[in-house]
Amino acid sequence: MNKNESKLNVIAQKLLKKVQLYASSDTKVGFMGLSMYPNTGFMINWDIFFLYKALREAPIEVRIHDPHIKGSEAIACGIWLGRQNKDESWSQSYDVLILSCPHIFYLNNLSKLGNLFKENKPCLFLDLYGVLGRVNSIGDSISIEDFTVDYDNEDLLGGLLPIIRPQIEN
Questions:
Q1: Which has the closest alpha carbon to 157: 82, 23, 51?
Q2: Residue 14 φ/ψ, nearest 5 degrees
Q3: Which residues pair with residue 29 across a beta bridge?
Q4: What is the pLDDT of residues 73-98, one digit of tens each?
Q5: pLDDT digits over 1-25, tens only?
Q6: Domains (ranges, CATH) in the chain?
Q7: Could you tell me which of 4, 14, 6 has the C-alpha nearest to residue 128?
Q8: Edge-to-edge, what's the strand order for the sheet holding 61-65?
Q9: Secondary-structure breakdown of the chain: helix, strand, coil percentages, each rounded to the nearest 5
């Protein structure tokens, strides 16, 4: 196991522990973003893909949404983006949402993201890049956590934190 794989394994284990605090028999986790950089579909972030696979192996039902990645590109990598079928609703079905790429689309629609969580149950909104620092709440029973507090800025998710934060702040 190389250094990056080891680091991702540690992050995946911490992520899994946080998810399990909100787990039930039908736990659903949603990743918001699969792109490497915000507001672009330039390339898939393989670190996020690793975390996605780790949760699926747990086994936990996991979905990914990204407005900038083409569905055909994701499917070629073995990932299904969005809803599994046209009749399935995204509303009120998630225990945990993970902001895994801070696209402006998500940041401008935080209040709508609150509708994706299960009602009357404690839920978690995890911010992998620490860009939601000023947001106090998106719902009564939804905890918002900055996942970066345990990591060195240079060390988190392929060293993207110092690159992504300035893009969002401007």
A1: 51
A2: -65, -40
A3: 62, 96
A4: 888 877 777 654 455 556 668 899 99
A5: 566 667 777 778 888 888 888 877 7
A6: 3-169 (3.40.50.720)
A7: 14
A8: 61-65, 28-32, 96-99, 123-127, 142-146
A9: 40, 15, 45
